[in-house]
């Protein structure tokens, strides 16, 4: 089995690191997050519930 030089290991590490970072960024920016206004409306509606025990 041939041995790899340290420079080849380093370039392989850089290649996989860049691939991992790009994959994570694509996953992060592919989902649309809910706006704050929609979340605040839901919480205000739930505050005024009258429970009858």
Automatic annotation (TrEMBL):
> By which gene is this protein encoded?
ATP8
List the transmembrane segments.
6-23
InterPro entries attached to this UniProt entry: ATP8_metazoa
**Known partners and oligomeric status:** F-type ATPases have 2 components, CF(1) - the catalytic core - and CF(0) - the membrane proton channel.
Identify the keywords attached in UniProt to this record, alphabetized.
CF(0), Hydrogen ion transport, Ion transport, Membrane, Mitochondrion, Transmembrane, Transmembrane helix, Transport
* Entry protein name: ATP synthase complex subunit 8
User: What GO molecular-function term can you cite, just one?
Assistant: proton transmembrane transporter activity
The beginning of the lineage is: Eukaryota, Metazoa, Ecdysozoa, Arthropoda, Hexapoda
Gene Ontology CC, one term: proton-transporting ATP synthase complex
Quote the subcellular location field of this record: Mitochondrion membrane
Chief subcellular location:
mitochondrion
The species this protein belongs to is Spathosternum prasiniferum sinense
Query: Its Gene Ontology biological processes?
Result: proton motive force-driven ATP synthesis
Similarity field: Belongs to the ATPase protein 8 family.
* Membrane-topology annotation of the record: Single-pass membrane protein
